[in-house]
Amino acid sequence: MYNIAKRLIELGRTDGLAKRIDLLYTLGKLTDEEYKDLVELLNN
Q: Which terminus of the chain has fewer Cβ atoms in its 10 Å neighbourhood, N or C?
């Protein structure tokens, strides 16, 4: 899931992605490090 989310960010397809990343993190599908990395990428 991390790789897919990261690729979507790279492609600029970020509409609604922040909520999806939060959900994946809540469900335990992302590690703390992966979550922090994706949020940082989204904010840049």
A: C
Alpha carbon 29 to chain centroid, angstroms: 11
The per-residue pLDDT of the chain, averaged, comes to 96
Name the domain count of the chain. Answer: 1
Domain span at 19 = 2-43
* Distance (Å, whole) CA 27 – CA 9: 20
- Alpha helices of the chain — where are they, by DSSP H? 2-10, 17-26, 32-43
Instruction: Give the whole-number percent of the chain exceeding pLDDT 90.
Output: 98
